[in-house]
Amino acid sequence: MDNNISWKHVSRSLDENGYALLKGVLNESTCKEFIAMYNNDTLYRSVIKMERYRFGKGEYKYFNYPLPDALSTMREKFYHQLAPIANGWMKMLSIDTEFPTKHHMLIDLCKTNQQMRPTPLILRYEAGGYNTLHQDLYGEVYFPFQVVFALTQAGKDYTGGEFVLTEQVPRAQSKARVISLDQGDALIFTTNFRPAKSTRGYYRATMKHGISEVTGGVRYALGLIFHDAT
Ligand SMILES: O=C(O)CCC(=O)C(=O)O
Ligand SMILES: [Fe+2]
């Protein structure tokens, strides 16, 4: 993983937009290693066919514990940098939550709420696949940011399949953003809301994410969610 991430840029972009795009975080061989893991079923605790739950069309697999080392390490590193930003948001919104500095301490908090199952996942979509707008909340304990890594290359491995982020403020319809990811890029984004500024201070702008329809080829992505699930 590229360690030259500018966390100042990340913090500013999250504050302004609710997401931050990091170019070229994973190299091509690391992306291929994750894709190769997809068919190793010993690595996963469950396989979800998205149609069955009307989540969209495609398939994803939740990793089991112990996570592959590379994934555990990335989760700890990202968490450590994102926790202070999350705490800043909680303050802005007057929410009485303070996230611990280390990821294993968040996992301990999850355990106290019976959230014990890992949530990192790999997703796979073929032509016609898509992911409906949603939020990845799996219990009362949740970390407000998550990360998605593009494992395949748009325009080469697949077409369509763009990341969509919507933002909804009170008494208005949703605004959508489409974010183009290249293979190896990481997108950090808010799981359920961002602080938006008004004349009376900050309020919560609800955000959801999804994937537009894949029109050809096969698209893979790796999702890194920090809290465990019930
Ligand atoms: O890029 C993808 O397919 C995953 C999008 C998503 O829902 C996530 O990362 O949580
Ligand atoms: Fe998601």
UniProtKB/TrEMBL annotation:
Record's keyword terms, sorted: Iron, Metal-binding, Oxidoreductase
Taxonomy of the source species: Bacteria, Pseudomonadati, Bacteroidota, Cytophagia, Cytophagales
GO MF terms held by the record: metal ion binding; oxidoreductase activity
Organism (species): Pseudochryseolinea flava
Protein name (Swiss-Prot/TrEMBL): Prolyl 4-hydroxylase subunit alpha
Family per record: Belongs to the iron/ascorbate-dependent oxidoreductase family.
Residue ranges of every copy of the Fe2OG dioxygenase domain listed in the record: 112-229
The UniProt record lists the keyword Calcium: no
Stretches of the chain forming a coiled coil according to its record: none
